[in-house]
Amino acid sequence: MAIGPGIGLDGETIEVVRRLARELRQSMVIDADGLSALAGHLDLLRDAPSGALSHAPPGEMARMLGARVDEVQRDRIETTREFATRHRVYLVLKGARSVVATPDGRVFVNPTGNPGMASGGTGDVLTGVLGACLARGMEPAAAMCASVYLHGSAGDIAAERVGEESLVARDVIAALPEAFKRLRGDGG
After folding, report:
1. Minimal CB count within 10 Å: which of 72, 78, 93, 122?
2. What does CATH list as the number for 1-109?
3. Rounded to the nearest 10 degrees, how much is the dihedral formed by the CA atoms of 172, 55, 62, 47?
4. 88-129: pLDDT as tens digits
């Protein structure tokens, strides 16, 4: 299940997100408004029976931690690792060289992606790619690393096509087939 992009933050929606975190037995990707619904209730992540997967830009991460963005950015690796182990989640801290951390403390730094991907909707694309990887039965850590890599690679391909300055989410989506081909070694 993937939840968050565009769902809004009315009271009923917030309660649904919290209830899903408490009760869902399958992996759940939480993004955007889904994370906002859990702000102040991060214990729900730790106690989630499914093992949640999430991604956040530095500003959203700072809000969840009650910290400043510069504090999050100061040590991106340790901030991500500490959050993932404390709350028993798989987490991506997005940004230049996105950081992926697992509940057992493993950390991976992604080499793909570019500043043009900081436009609205590109995180929703990552949520979709991650949800699709999980639906195919991938183990959460592998799904997270593969999704972040493919998403960044598609962003790099899109930037080659349209430039970083004008890159939007649909460009990343359009570049996903080429990113898969390049990963398999049969294109680009």
Report:
1. 78
2. 3.40.1190.20
3. 170
4. 999 999 999 999 999 999 999 999 999 999 999 999 999 999
